[in-house]
């Protein structure tokens, strides 16, 4: 288990001599075992932040660390895993084999089978375990990608619009699955979405980005599962929309 501590983080890209400040002076502490959602307009730096956290990009300045709940344990950044908008499965492997892939070096194959079966069951994929990615729906493929990440058992799960390409019904089902998994496992989850409803439905805190900066940390003090039509839910949503769009939604 681990949280994420981000201090004075900056990322500058250069395109044809032009400087792009994708992230400027980001300070963000995500406590171990919490679910944080990131929202903001396109280009505000959300994906860049996830890429820096998991080491796919290097920061220009600043620091990222993974403080464990128990200070005596040293958490390595390789226990961070990312789920993208597209499932990125290996087409020549079945659902079960894709999920087992991160455990390929594990010698105790019985333990691997037990872990994979646990997540096949939890994600309602047991029936499709022998199917290849080309034979399953987008929602099943995304569940397989999530299962693969959970089999790896990371300390921190990063999710970049993982439900963005799904139809509304499948998206609702996967949101509910995600909440269940979070409540069962209490992993640290950092979830990027363009959908403010989804951000409030899932996050214990919504972090709002604007042009490479954090403009607000909005706590969501509501239990799970949440009712998107409840007054409290709508109030949080309105505040976030006002910050993003700059209009008053009252
Ligand atoms: N590899 C790169 N090279 C140059 N510029 C980049 C690169 N990656 C991102 N950027 C720039 O950094 C800024 C932030 O991009 P980023 O993808 O992090 O935003 P985002 O908030 O995730 O956007 P979206 O919601 O559309 O995915 C943008 O201006 C983008 O053009």
Automatic annotation (TrEMBL):
<dbReference type="InterPro" id="IPR050166">
    <property type="entry name" value="ABC_transporter_ATP-bind"/>
</dbReference>
<dbReference type="GO" id="GO:0016887">
    <property type="term" value="F:ATP hydrolysis activity"/>
</dbReference>
<dbReference type="InterPro" id="IPR027417">
    <property type="entry name" value="P-loop_NTPase"/>
</dbReference>
<keyword id="KW-0547">Nucleotide-binding</keyword>
<dbReference type="GO" id="GO:0005524">
    <property type="term" value="F:ATP binding"/>
</dbReference>
<dbReference type="Pfam" id="PF00005">
    <property type="entry name" value="ABC_tran"/>
</dbReference>
<dbReference type="InterPro" id="IPR003593">
    <property type="entry name" value="AAA+_ATPase"/>
</dbReference>
<keyword id="KW-0813">Transport</keyword>
<dbReference type="InterPro" id="IPR003439">
    <property type="entry name" value="ABC_transporter-like_ATP-bd"/>
</dbReference>
<keyword id="KW-0067">ATP-binding</keyword>
<protein>
    <submittedName>
        <fullName>ABC-type nitrate/sulfonate/bicarbonate transport system, ATPase component</fullName>
    </submittedName>
</protein>
<feature type="domain" description="ABC transporter">
    <location>
        <begin position="4"/>
        <end position="236"/>
    </location>
</feature>
């Amino acid at each position: 288990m681990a949280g994420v501590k981000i201090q004075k983080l900056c990322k500058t890209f250069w395109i044809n001599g032009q400087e792009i400040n994708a992230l400027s002076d980001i300070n963000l502490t995500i406590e171990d075992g919490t679910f944080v959602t990131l929202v903001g307009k396109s280009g505000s730096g959300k994906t860049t932040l996830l890429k820096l956290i998991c080491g796919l990009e290097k920061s220009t300045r600043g620091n990222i660390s993974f403080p464990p709940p128990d200070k005596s344990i040293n958490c390595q950044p390789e226990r961070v895993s990312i789920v993208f908008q597209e499932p990125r499965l290996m087409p020549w492997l079945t659902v079960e084999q894709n999920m087992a892939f991160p455990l390929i070096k594990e010698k105790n194959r019985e333990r691997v089978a037990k872990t994979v079966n646990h997540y096949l069951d939890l994600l309602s994929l047991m029936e499709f375990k022998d199917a290849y990615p080309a034979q399953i729906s987008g929602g099943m493929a995304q569940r397989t990608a999530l299962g693969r990440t959970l089999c790896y058992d990371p300390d921190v799960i990063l999710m970049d619009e993982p439900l963005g390409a799904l139809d509304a019904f499948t998206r609702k089902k996967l949101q509910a699955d995600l909440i269940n998994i979070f409540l069962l496992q209490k992993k640290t989850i950092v979830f990027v979405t363009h959908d403010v409803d989804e951000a409030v439905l899932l996050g214990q805190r919504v972090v709002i980005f604007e042009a490479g900066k954090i403009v607000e940390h909005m706590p969501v003090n509501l239990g799970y599962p949440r009712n998107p039509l409840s007054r409290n839910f709508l109030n949080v949503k309105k505040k976030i929309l006002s910050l993003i769009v700059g209009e008053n939604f009252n």
